[in-house]
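ok trying again, last paste got cut off:
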Amino acid sequence: MQKEKIDPKLITVLSVGVCAALMTICSWISIPIVVPFTLQTFAVFLIAGLFSLKVSMLSITVFIALGAVGLPVFSGFKSGLAAVMGPTGGYMVGFLFTALIIWLFKTIKPSSVPFLVIGMSLGLAVCYMFGTIWFYIVYARTGNVMSGAKILSLCVLPFLIPDAVKMALAVLLVNRLTAPLSKMGFVKAM
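nice, full thing came through this time. structure:
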């Protein structure tokens, strides 16, 4: 009996759909503050750690697009273009850069936990930077100017420890799930 091969395009579509759904679920798990605590960064770490750049970028793009067109996929069940263009929209766009940086470090040294952690850390730093600058610009346009220290106290400092915990959990899961997902055909070489 010969084992049937699953079409790689179908695997990509399924992977993107499941990953976009994971991003949605992780955004719904939220503590609402100015910049809400969510599990979105955990989802980005996990997706980028497990899947190819193509699947990672498509998943994040689909997630953002679904929210932009009105599906309540963002934290607090928000949606719409206003949510994407609002004060925290830069962090969602920053997820794309996070995935790209994680992928770059995965290609340098696959299966290396230190390289994965470095990639996730640098990707998160770029996401923080992009999102914080976006946050500043959006608030400045409304006439509300905040100091850099105030913005960092709202947008970055409260998230450092929770994001480190999410990163550690994602690294653990990437190490445990890569082999089984590879055998099923969902994770393959970059």
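cool. The radius of gyration is 17 Å. The chain has eight helices and two strands.
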